[in-house]
């Protein structure tokens, strides 16, 4: 018997054990996977113009001609990746039916963000496709260990041997450029000048319209032969997307009438992010399921919104640099002194004591202001600039939700040791900011 749980460690009793109470759930979901980002529907509502544009640009591949390179921009959750994958699958099917060679290779540059790994991954994807179609033994390029020139040469030889049109999709291309510069893109854009029997076309997908500032003009002109911008979804469009998924995902008559409109409205406020809308709807259903509810209501949507905000906030705070955490901790001290709103100057005063306690270099007032701006941009705090008349302008800050989660997250950082933090004289600040 486990002393802490009171449960038998060796078995016996129901085989379901801990999960018995979940076996008789009311059946909120028919297929919850439909509400995940990875699911690709057969129809993409409100993206037909963008899909048609991508298809028109890639159409020369059907004639074994080189399509133009494309740069696709748009905020997160606007259907960029789903649209490109949909068109890519249709292109491969069309070429197959016509007896033309065409491969679409999709890479996520957030996970593969160096030149070596990009080239190696393209080669390995092509080898996978070839080994499936011709039963050839696979001789993969290692993800590390070779000189980059050797990988480049091997990939070029492989592409030439395979022939046809090869479309390389670099999703989150901005991550690759910011991490390792534009050399990878330069090498890929000059592939066609070195090939005789094959063609390379590239599609870059980015959430950041400014990443092209990091590109050499020659690379930019070659890469952005065509540009497409995906606009955010509005609330009615998000309702259509959610309704399409909900019809498949949920049991019949399980959603209250206001659930989908509320999810759509909340996501529309977040820059029209369909992923956010889908997460809200799925988590609302899961919360109803966990409490063994008979229906999913607007109450569950509001609970889901709070959960998503708290979870994303915790991930964001845990990944902050130590100096940013010190500034944030200074704000927590001010909030504990019942200051609902605080200024940059007040944060800077507390920060100096916090930095000393944590044995950090003390930043300048300008740098502290920069870190505060970054925390605002990340959504960790709220801020506004107010005019003080002849005394000039100042920034006021305050916490929204999730203060308890921020405290717990900072407490897990070993730099924020309790013994160190005891050195901070809270009483002095209580007098100072009375």
UniProtKB/TrEMBL annotation:
Matches recorded under SUPFAM superfamilies: P-loop containing nucleoside triphosphate hydrolases, Winged helix' DNA-binding domain
GO molecular function, one term: ATP hydrolysis activity
Keywords linked to the UniProt accession: ATP-binding, DNA replication, Nucleotide-binding
Keyword ATP-binding part of the UniProt annotation: yes
Highest taxon listed in the record's lineage: Archaea
Domain (Cdc6 C-terminal) ranges: 328-410
Biological process according to GO: DNA replication
Amino-acid positions noted as binding ATP in the UniProt annotation, renumbered to this chain: 78-82, 233, 245
Residue span, AAA+ ATPase domain: 66-234
HAMAP family, alphabetized: ORC1_type_DNA_replic_protein
Function (record text): Involved in regulation of DNA replication.
Family recorded in the similarity comment: Belongs to the CDC6/cdc18 family.
The protein's name: ORC1-type DNA replication protein
Species: Methanochimaera problematica
């Amino acid at each position: 018997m486990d002393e802490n749980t009171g449960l038998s460690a060796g078995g016996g009793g129901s085989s379901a054990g801990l999960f018995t109470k979940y076996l008789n759930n009311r059946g909120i979901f028919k297929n919850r996977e439909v509400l995940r980002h990875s699911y690709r529907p057969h129809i993409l509502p409100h993206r037909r113009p963008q899909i048609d544009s991508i298809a028109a640009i890639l159409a020369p591949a059907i004639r074994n001609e080189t399509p133009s390179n494309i740069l696709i921009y748009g905020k997160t959750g606007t259907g960029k990746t789903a649209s490109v994958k949909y068109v890519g699958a249709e292109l491969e099917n069309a070429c197959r039916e016509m007896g033309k060679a065409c491969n679409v290779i999709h890479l996520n540059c957030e996970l593969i963000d160096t030149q070596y790994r990009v080239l190696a991954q393209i080669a390995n994807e092509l080898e996978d496709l070839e080994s499936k179609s011709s039963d050839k033994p696979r001789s993969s390029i290692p993800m590390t260990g070779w000189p980059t020139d050797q990988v480049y040469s091997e990939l070029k030889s492989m592409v030439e041997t395979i022939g046809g049109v090869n479309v390389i999709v670099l999703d989150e291309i901005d991550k690759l450029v910011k991490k390792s510069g534009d050399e990878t893109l330069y090498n890929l854009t000059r592939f066609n000048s070195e090939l005789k029997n094959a063609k390379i076309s590239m599609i870059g997908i980015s959430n950041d319209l400014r990443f092209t500032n990091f590109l050499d003009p020659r690379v930019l002109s070659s890469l952005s032969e065509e540009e497409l911008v995906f606009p955010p979804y509005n609330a009615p469009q998000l309702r259509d997307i959610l309704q399409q998924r909900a019809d498949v995902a949920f049991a019949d008559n399980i959603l209250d009438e206001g659930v989908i409109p509320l999810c759509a409205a909340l996501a529309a406020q977040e820059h029209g992010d369909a992923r956010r809308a889908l997460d809200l709807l799925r988590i609302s259903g899961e919360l109803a399921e966990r409490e063994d509810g008979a229906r999913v209501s607007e109450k569950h949507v509001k609970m889901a919104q709070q959960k998503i905000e708290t979870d994303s906030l915790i991930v964001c705070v845990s990944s902050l640099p130590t100096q940013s955490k010190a500034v944030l901790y200074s704000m927590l001290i001010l909030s504990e002194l019942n200051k609902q709103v605080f200024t940059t100057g007040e944060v800077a005063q507390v920060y100096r004591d916090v930095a000393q306690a944590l044995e950090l270099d003390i930043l300048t007032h300008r740098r502290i202001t920069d870190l505060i701006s970054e925390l605002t941009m990340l959504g960790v705090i709220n801020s506004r600039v107010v005019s003080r008349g002849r005394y000039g302008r100042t920034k006021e800050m305050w916490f929204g939700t999730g203060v308890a989660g921020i405290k717990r997250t900072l407490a897990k950082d070993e730099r924020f040791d309790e013994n160190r933090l005891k050195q901070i004289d809270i009483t002095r600040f209580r007098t100072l900011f009375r």
